[in-house]
Amino acid sequence: MGVPGLWDILRPAGQRRVQSESWGNLGLRIGIDVSLWFYHASQGRGGENPELRTLFFRCTRLMSMPFLPLFLFDGPGRPKIKRGKHTMGRSHWLTSGMKEFIAAFGFEWREAPGEAEAELAYLNKIGVIDAILSDDVDAFLFGALTVIRNPSPTLAGNKRRRQDDPKDDSHSLVYRSTDIQHHDDIQLTRGGLILVGILQGGDYCEQGLRGCGVSIAHGLARCGLGDSLLDVARTKTRHELEAFLAVWRDELRRELRTNKHGYLPRNYNKLTDTIPESFPDINVVLAYAIPVTSETRGRPYIVDWNKQPDFPRITALCATVFQWEDRVLLLERFRTVLWPLAVFRILRYTLVTSTSTSTLDDLLIQIHSSRRHRSTDNILEYRLEISPAILVRLCNLSEWIDETLETTEPQSFDSPQGGSNEERKRTTSNEAKHPGRHMKIWLPACIVEAVNPGMVETFERSRKSKQVKHTARWTKVPVVVAE
Fold this sequence. Notes:
By secondary structure, the protein is α/β, with parallel strands linked by helices.
């Protein structure tokens, strides 16, 4: 999808950023084109409804990041033909199921007037969203300011990055239009990017200009030919644009023959003879320059960024859509894929709303250790013990726990266990089955300290005390010999 070879041109401008990095208390507002998720979900295999399972796990992944997502679906004004194929007249068959999960996770969604990618670029320009999470480079052709490259290791553009560090799946590449424009090896404006798309071929024109490779397209784009084309397309009438294109084609041929600006590898006299009088397709130029968006339709945008996950709804969807009807199995899966993310989300919501509830007192037990790990760029993290019982109650499953395990109480990791060996084994077995048993998760220290400074102070005091004792134990005391 997008323009072949363009990501390779832009790669030097990408900045490596850890996905869990704090972007402020509110979080980073990102836009997502749902059609790209549908494409990746079609590769899902295994289990009941594998496509929706893929979308579900991607939503849980989003919950672990400081992102506030806005999903956009393609609207009725999207292009009728893309990549030489007619787009579907009706909605994608995954649309209704995806909207259910988006709402359950507390995310926002909208339907774009036209193509979702173009609408996201417009929302990025006017400041409704901070960035676009995508692997489609077309976002920059539509005028996006910041794109976070989809971190999936299966994407062709990410394979080279993972060869350098194959174990690194916690970072993404962040691209900004200003870096793309001013980087010495790129120097592409929006008009230049559009010209590369027209010459190389893309979603709206598969073939492009025959015989024009990536390096030639890049060189021509740096000469300013794309800027003049975009300016006329946006400010003049269609008739005036058609008249301008005759002059513009002559400039294009002249640059190929003379390499006046010196951005081409060499002169390309033969290529000038292959440029038809119909190039470029005026409809393709206008599709990139003036896409159907809220700007052209005059629609206001209001987004609620403070929504929270609806845990009962998530539970019901998983039970019905994925056939996770066995409650023991359901809660065990939630312990792995949902509880750590839910805690992170609850703590961030507490920071955003500046509220403190008894829920946090029941949820957070104590800090066990700290670390600085390479996967999170060595930021300070705490190993936090939590009690998932409150999360189980939020899923409306506490009644089931009371009925089936009323004789078993979850224990802290530091709780003493007395009695005979058989009694301890029986207690351990029951404890292992209890959905409310405590668990440990890693969380950024800055969030834990902001939510519960007293707990952090207690841990740090204890840690320093242990360090002093450890140092004193191994420090040799000099022996004074009497004369």
